[in-house]
Amino acid sequence: MLLAGIRETLDDSRPRGPERSLGSEELQQTMNYHDTLIEVADDCPATEAQVPHARGAEKTKAVVEYELLIKHPYTYNEEDIAFQVYAALHGIPKATWPAERKKFLSKGHPHLRVSPLAKRYGWGIHNNADGKIALIAVESPAYKQLLDDPGTTKIKAFRSSRA
Question: Domain extents for the chain?
Answer without folding.
Answer: 2-156
